[in-house]
Each structure stands twice: as C-alpha cells, then as structure tokens.
C-alpha cells in the first residue's frame, strides 16, 4: 500500500517508534530511523519487515531537543529519499516529580523533545507534502494528552500540547491531501514504562510481574498493555485510503483508561 513512500519515525530505535516503523515497512514504505543507542539491530528489524517489498532504510541521529539537528535530519531524508511522505513524531522522554520539586532543566528538555520537536519536524515536512498533495503526519501523544496524572506536569503539558498541535495542523491542511492525527496510547511496555515498573517493584518490595499488575490496575481497566505492533497497525490505517478524511483526531488506544 505504501510502496514508493518514505516514512520518517523519530525515536524509532526501540519501543513504540520501532513498532510503527516495522508496520510501515511491511506496507512497503522506505524508513528513516532516528534515535539513540543501538542502531544496527533496529535497522535490521525494519529491513526484515520490509524485505518482501524491497524497501530501503536510513538513519539520522538528530538530537530532537535541537532545532538545527532536526533541520539536518529533514534535509538528509529529502536528499536520500526525495521527500518525507509520512512523518511520525514519536520521540519522547519522561521525568516524574511534584511541581515544586520538578527540575527546571527536566521541564525544558521534556517540552523540547516531546512537543517542540514535533512542531519543527512538521513545519519542515509540510511544504513537500503540500506540493505533492499527499502526506501523513502522525503525532504520538498519550492518554496523558487527554487526561492527567500527578507528578507528570511536563509530560502531561507536552502531550496536551501535541493534541492541540495535531488539531491545528489538521485544520490548516483540511482542504488538501495531507492529514494529521494523534495516537494516544495508555500503558505500553516500552523501556520508559519498564523503568516505572521497576521503581514500583522496588517501592513496594514486590516482583516485577506484580508491579506490572499494580501499574495497570491503577489506570487501565483492560489490565493489558497496548503493544507497539497494535499502535503500528493504527498508524497504517491512518496512511490508508480509509484514513483520507480522518483529520485532527486524538485516537486513544488505552484499554479504557480515558473512558473512566
């Protein structure tokens, strides 16, 4: 379905971003990866997912807190693949603390990486998408873009901002072949969430499995983690003809979290 298209997925060397990159690759999209840590392993996984479709992969290690590096990444994608047809703004970090104790530098970093990076990548991707009259911008928000939790002021503020940015982008592109939507996962067992599970296990002196149940039980009625593969399939839907007139939605995949 996406043969000949190119998708750039930020924060895609693990977790949600990697799952989405693999799903888009299976549909034939060339993939530009971005992120820290191991690159060769994730790049091989994406290549395997798209091997039958003959996809190509690329990588750029832009620090998503730095606008100049985001610009360099977008230039790399355009030079290597022609243009970015599908932009998935997924990069994110987390820090947990009460507002009065929240380190200012952590607030600034979370807003820069979780929110401002999506603005910068979007503004740079839009001209080519509009010229081609086709494009997909998928912002990975969170159920925390719809509801709040204590001790997550910066993350909740950033994710609410992402939902707002999604709506504005969708309105500005509404008469065109470019769409913009947000995905709002609940708990996904990414490295970021695993750290919270580990902390809960230590705090309560319980096993990791019991800590997972405790974490899910606090918020997610289904008692199941959403998987990166499920989120990838939703991204594929947004890129399909069935998604042509889905615009500006914040689609939660959260096991009933926000329904409470």
What does this 3D model show about the protein?
By secondary structure, the chain is an alpha/beta fold. The protein has two domains: 6-188 and 227-259, Rossmann fold (3-Layer(aba) Sandwich); 189-225, no CATH class. The protein is built from eight helices and seven strands, in the order E-H-E-H-E-H-E-H-E-H-E-H-H-H-E. The protein has helices spanning 15-26, 40-49, 67-81, 104-132, 153-172, 191-204, 208-219, 228-239; strands spanning 6-9, 30-33, 57-59, 86-89, 135-140, 178-185, 250-253. It has a seven-stranded parallel beta sheet with strand order 3-2-1-4-5-6-7, sandwiched between helices. Helix 1 links the parallel strand 1 and strand 2. Helix 3 (67-81) runs parallel beside helix 4. It is globular. The model has no long low-confidence stretch (mean pLDDT 97).
């Amino acid at each position: 379905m996406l043969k000949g298209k190119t998708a750039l997925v930020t924060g895609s060397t693990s977790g949600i971003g990697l799952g989405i990159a693999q799903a888009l690759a299976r549909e034939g999209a060339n993939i530009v990866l971005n992120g820290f840590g191991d690159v060769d392993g994730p790049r091989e996984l994406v290549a395997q997912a798209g091997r039958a479709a003959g996809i190509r992969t690329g990588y750029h290690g832009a620090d998503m807190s730095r606008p100049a590096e985001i610009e360099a990444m977008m230039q790399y994608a355009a030079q290597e693949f022609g243009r970015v047809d599908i932009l998935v703004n997924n990069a994110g970090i987390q820090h947990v603390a009460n507002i009065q104790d929240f380190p200012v530098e952590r607030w600034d970093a979370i807003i820069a990486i979780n929110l401002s990076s999506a603005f910068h990548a979007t503004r740079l991707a839009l001209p080519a998408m509009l010229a081609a009259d086709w494009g997909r911008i998928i912002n990975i928000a969170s159920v925390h873009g719809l509801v709040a939790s204590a001790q997550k002021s910066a993350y909740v503020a950033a994710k609410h901002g992402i939902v707002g940015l999604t709506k504005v982008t969708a309105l500005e592109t509404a008469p065109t072949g470019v769409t913009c939507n947000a995905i709002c996962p609940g708990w996904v067992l990414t490295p970021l969430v695993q750290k919270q599970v580990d902390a809960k296990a230590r705090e309560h002196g319980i096993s990791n499995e019991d800590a997972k149940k405790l974490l899910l039980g606090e918020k997610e009625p289904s008692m199941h983690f959403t998987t990166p593969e499920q989120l990838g399939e939703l991204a594929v839907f947004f890129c399909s003809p069935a998604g042509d007139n889905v615009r500006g939605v914040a689609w939660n995949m959260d096991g009933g979290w926000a329904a409470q």
